[in-house]
Amino acid sequence: MDQPKLPYVVFSRVDSPSLWVRFSIPGQGQKRICLKTSNEEEAKRNAEYEYQRALWSAERGELPGRTSFDKVARQYLESAQLEAGSNPSKLSKVAADRGVLDRYMVPFFGRSPITAISVPTLHSYMEWRRSYWTSGPGAK
Q1: CA 76 – CA 70 distance, rounded (Å)
Q2: Could you please report the per-residue DSSP string of 56-107?
Q3: What is the Cα Rg of the chain in Å?
Q4: For residues 39 and 46, is the Cβ–Cβ distance under 8 A?
Q5: Around Cβ 18, how many Cβ atoms within 10 Å?
Q6: pLDDT tens-place string over residues 25-61
């Protein structure tokens, strides 16, 4: 009896002793994840877990782990610009948002993965932002 086709593939690479899994999530592209084992049964369990975890993250709207803050900021501004069209009020909001992102947020968060921005990181940003004009980059 044939096994049902799985939405992922467990495979080996010549440069790694471990097995890997690959699958695609709509809107997030293809993922390749090391399963950290060479045991096929354990790899199958880990592959199912990784696939389900990626699906749950996508359903919750979480961004892929390697998406950087500056990339999200650019995407937001492009989307806001398109949505604003030629509406002066909305264009003014986009300009203000661009100013905040370009002056404060992108220089602070930069290429940090979005998933690495935690509560302590936000507290550091708020502290940095408070001192921006007095003793930080804006004081120069």
Answers
A1: 10
A2: HHHHTTPPPTT-BHHHHHHHHHHHHHHHHTT-HHHHHHHHHHHHHIIIIIHH
A3: 21
A4: no
A5: 14
A6: 887 788 999 999 999 999 999 999 999 999 998 888 7
Interatomic CA distance for residues 90 and 134, integer angstroms: 31
Say if CB 38 and CB 29 are below 8 A apart: no
pTM score, whole prediction: 0.60
Specify the amino acid at residue 77. L
| CA separation for the pair 4, 18 (Å, rounded) | 24
Residue with tokens 């930069």: 110
Q: Per-residue pLDDT for 131 more than 90?
A: yes
Share of the chain above pLDDT 70, in %: 96
- The letter for the amino acid at 109 is F
Residue 73, token pair as written in the block? 């900021």
Q: Hey, what amino acid is at 127? A: E
